[in-house]
Amino acid sequence: MAFGASPPSFTLLGDLIVRYPVIKTALPGPLAAQLIEVDRQFVSPSYTRIFPLVAQSAEGLWITDPDGNLFLDFTSGIAVCATGHCHPQVVKAIREQAGRLLHMSGTDFYYTPQILVAQKLAALGPVGGPAKVFFGNSGAEAVEAAFKLARRELNLAFFGAFHGRTMGALSLTASKAVQKKHYNPLVPGITHIPYAYCYRCPYNLCYPACGLACVHYLEDTLFRTTVPPEEVAAIFVEPIQGEGGYIVPPPEFHRELAGITGKYGILYVADEVQSGMGRTGKMFAMEHFGVAPDIMALAKGIASGLPLGAMVSRAEIMDWEAGSHASTFGGNPVACQAALATIALLEGELMANAAARGEQLLAGLREIQRSMECIGDVRGLGLMIGVEMVKDRVTKERAEDWRNRLIQIAFRRGLLLLGCGPNTIRFCPALTVSADEVEVCLEIFDASLKELFA
């Protein structure tokens, strides 16, 4: 392990000898508990720490805390560390760039890494043609930039969507009421509509007999009654809803939706902050649906842990005047160099690995589902997989309390998981995850479920 972490533990799994978590102390251990107490005194209480993990060092999918406990990380820093923790090629790129140039603000000056990342992102074809890139520091900044670029009187977004917590992005977000509590009024003119959540269809219909009623609601109801389509600037949509519950829409959802918005000259803005950069087995999740949006927001996995956000737009749309939008630290040279190394790794083998390991993980979770009535749905693409927990498979009563307790049990067994939506567990490991690590995850998850109901 890097940076003085504990040596790995190994155990037998079938005929294989594989790495396994090691929990040496009660959690949190004494050193971690001390740090958590200092954090409680000085760090904002707005953060949501759902279990007492203090990360001391990490490598690949393995995290060590100050007390020497070793965890298998299936969160990848909330889908950020696409190439795993401290990938040697990314670390090398960061160190070399840090020795050359740390900062020069790409809003006022030129430097090579920012130019090369913009060129590379445009070449990847996220918007299906000539593109230009605006750099920020985060997904929220990328969404804010898209919102500002597209701005007219009205915009559309989806219930369950998470686009960030800054005021413009928060106005588009419709994930949890607590995120908006005390902050109204927000940006006006945003209408939220139901997402294609087939497991819980908001229209009580069944796909495919539904005829994609959630899409045709735009023309059949919204544009006819309350929202003049000629006043709508853009529709903001996640290819796969992230914080809303890792919801995968039907294959034709985005094509049909883009067809309607294109008919009225409404910009199609894809928020790929969580789903992009190889996570679904393709560079961008929209590729699965055959749609090239007008604008795309990227962040999280783009720089393997360094803060970087990018808003990629069709070139003819990005017609800002000089000085109309900028970011002092956006496109930082060290973060951009990390992004170049990250993209090279994704293209080299990690996207293919995400697709293969995703199939393995989905199959394993569906096998567990067969014997566990509390699992209502297993869904995902690549390594963006959700397991929705229910009290009853017929009524689909949400089992938020079971989900929360299960995450705690898994943590104490050395597996790091996170929730999304009211009652779903997300599996978003690094794209470097091995077949053995997937099997260890499945074994611990299954054991944790059994402990939950013991």
List keywords for this structure.
disordered N terminus; seven-stranded mixed sheet; globular; Aspartate Aminotransferase, domain 2; Aspartate Aminotransferase, domain 1; single chain; 17% strand; four-stranded mixed sheet; alpha/beta; 454 residues
Task: Give structural notes.
Helices cover 33% and strands 17% of the residues. The protein has 11 helices and 17 strands. The chain has 2 domains: 2-86 and 351-452, Aspartate Aminotransferase, domain 1, CATH 3.90.1150; 90-345, Aspartate Aminotransferase, domain 2 (3-Layer(aba) Sandwich). A 7-stranded mixed beta sheet has the order 6-12-11-10-9-7-8, sandwiched between helices.
Along the chain, the helix and strand elements come as EEHEEEHHHEHEHEHEHEEEHEEHEEEH
Q: What is the strand tally? A: 17
The helix fraction, in percent, is: 25-40%
- Cα-based radius of gyration, to the nearest Å: 22 Å
Counting DSSP H or I runs of 4 or more residues, the number of helices is 11
| Distance between the first and last residues' Cα | 35 Å
CATH architecture of the largest domain: 3-Layer(aba) Sandwich
Which geometry do the CA atoms define?
globular
Q: What's the CATH C level of the largest domain?
A: Alpha Beta
Q: Average pLDDT across residues?
A: 94
Category by helix and strand content: alpha/beta
CATH superfamily of the largest domain: Type I PLP-dependent aspartate aminotransferase-like (Major domain)
Strand content: 15-25%
Total of domains: 2
- Please mark out the parts with pLDDT under 50 across 5 or more consecutive residues, or reply none: 1-8, 12-16
Largest sheet: 7 strands, mixed
The CATH topology of the largest domain corresponds to: Aspartate Aminotransferase, domain 2
Spatial arrangement of strands, main beta sheet: 6-12-11-10-9-7-8
